[in-house]
Amino acid sequence: MAAYFIVHISSAIFDRSAPNLDSCPDESLPEFAFIGRSNVGKSSLLNLLAGREALARVSPTPGFTKLINFFTMNKTWRLVDLPGYGFAEGAKKDSARFNAAVSHFLKRRPNLCLVFALIDSGLAPQELDLTFVEWLARNAVPFVLVFTKTDKETPAVVQANIAAFKERIAAWFVQSPASFTCSATTDQGRTELLGVIDEAMTAIQAEANRIPESPEDAATPQLPPTRKRGPDLQRPW
Ligand SMILES: Nc1nc2c(ncn2[C@@H]2O[C@H](COP(=O)(O)OP(=O)(O)O)[C@@H](O)[C@H]2O)c(=O)[nH]1
Ligand SMILES: [Mg+2]
Q1: Ligand 1 centre distance from Cα of residue 223 (Å)
Q2: What is the DSSP string of the chain?
Q3: CA of 140 to the centre of ligand 1 (A)
Q4: Which of 37, 78, 96, 159 has the fewest other C-beta atoms within 10 Å?
Q5: What residues does 181 pair with on adjacent strands?
Q6: Ligand positioned closest to the Cα atom of 44
Q7: 4-53 pLDDT, tens digit each
Q8: Which ligand 1 atom sits nearest the alpha carbon of residue 63?
Q9: Which ligand is nearest to the CA of 58?
Q10: pLDDT tens digit string along 181-193?
Q11: If you measure from the C-alpha of residue 82 to the centroid of ligand 2, how many angstroms do you get, rounded to a whole number?
């Protein structure tokens, strides 16, 4: 039942663009955020998952998206398009400010369920991406890896790049993060990634509907669906 509502996106609405954490929408809806270097394909993947071609702006110019963009799906959860890290162009001051906003969002947003960390599958491991993944691990941000643009190289090259990336990050994790591949050109990965969101939403609903087992539990006020801080090692993501 839940799978139907999640996979079938009946409404996808732009909520707002926020320059910092204080300007973000209320924390009532679970959020799934896209992050990665400028031009890696964040906005394209968001559009692919939402099933809308032009919901988030896709740009051939790196560094185009400088704000945190919120999109509400089926009125029950949000996709969040985060500014790309590592773009060279644009004012230095702006760049630093937005990096701080992203860092605050990733570390403090209580209703952030999961981050999709996007990596270009056509490239050998890049220091900037490795540094960022290490930062996610150190800050216990729940994330999965998504290797993008699989249509651009042969499957052998894609697999070699993914294997090399995983090898470089292996030492930082007790359990390696889950990884997925996608292509906004061929729609590859859409079902799998919506499945991840579906599973997370189902778990949140189950937690919200949990019948209190003791009077102490019953006395605990019902909190809005928020993520548990810290990695859950029973789950790969
Ligand atoms: N071939 C190919 N191009 C892609 C794919 N995803 C994005 N692009 C292109 O890469 C560029 C940057 O995409 P965009 O979604 O704006 O990246 P963002 O900066 O991370 O949001 C655009 O020219 C897209 O058309 C993909 O899966 N395959
Ligand atoms: Mg973008």
Answers
A1: 38
A2: -HHHHHHS---EEEEEEESSGGGSPPTTS-EEEEEEBTTSSHHHHHHHHHT-TTSSPP-SSTT---SEEEEEETTTEEEEEPPPB---SS-HHHHHHHHHHHHHHHHH-TTEEEEEEEEETTSPPPHHHHHHHHHHHHTT--EEEEEE-TTSS-HHHHHHHHHHHHHHHGGG-SSPPPEEE--TTT-TTHHHHHHHHHHHHHHHHHHHTPPP-SHHHHHSPPPP--PPSS--TTS--
A3: 28
A4: 96
A5: 147
A6: 1
A7: 445 689 999 999 999 999 999 999 999 999 999 989 999 999 999 999 98
A8: 19
A9: 1
A10: 999 999 999 999 9
A11: 8
For the chain, how many residues are written?
237
Counting ligands in written order, the one closest to the CA of 121 is 1
Please state the pTM of the whole predicted model: 0.86
